[in-house]
Amino acid sequence: MRIAIAGGHGQIARLLGQRLSGEGHDVVGLIRTPEQADDLRAAGMEPTVISLEDASVDDVAEVINGCDAVVFAAGGGPESGRARKWSVDLMGAVLLADAAEQAGVRRYVMVSSIGSDAPENVDAGVFQVYLYAKGGADADLRTRDLDWTIVRPGMLTDDAPTGQVTINPDQQRQPITRGDVAHTLAQVLTSGHAIRETFVVVNGATPVDEAVASL
């Protein structure tokens, strides 16, 4: 498969790219600055410099043309303000979906967030704006005639991956390692399971492949 990852320099994105390239897939990482390119190459990814905040649908469609799948793993970042939550977390995801439709790329995997279904008062703070933006991006994707999957990781940690998860737990605010998120995303992309599914994933007791196959 040839897979494009928007937000290719992010921690989960690089772990995902490394896993996919190690399995023999071609991975294109969309990044904002050339300075990030060497990190992507080290993870086995092909860097492409393009900003989702400035690019047109045609620009992005040209980059992902010929891909079998796209992954939205971009974000404004923890230090960004309200404006970038809208321009990246919401509008960047919408732009990638528009481009996927134009380029004929049917498979779209969204890295979302727990809490994005029902964020509290959007005026309460930047984090609530972030959840509102993620929820809006998820809602937009569900309207598309694409083979989409929305993955909502629990509380992210940098611990060593376990290879075991729980999907749709009773308590969503549980931890999951970034490595296990990447493993779950890779399994979703390559297995053919979880199309048109939205699910929360946290660390648990079920091997990733079995958990994804249950969807």
Which percent band covers the strand fraction?
A: 15-25%
Count of the separate structural domains: 1
Shape: globular
What's the count of strands? Answer: 11
Radius of gyration: 16 Å
Going by CATH, the homologous superfamily would be NAD(P)-binding Rossmann-like Domain
Poorly predicted runs are none
Reported CATH architecture: 3-Layer(aba) Sandwich
Helix proportion range: 25-40%
In the CATH hierarchy, the third-tier topology is known as Rossmann fold
InterPro entries: NAD(P)-bd_dom (IPR016040), NAD(P)-bd_dom_sf (IPR036291)
Organism: Dermacoccus nishinomiyaensis
Domain NAD(P)-binding: 7-190
Protein name: NAD-dependent dehydratase
Structural key phrases:
215 residues, alpha/beta, Rossmann fold, nine-stranded mixed β-sheet, 11 strands, 40% helix, 23% strand
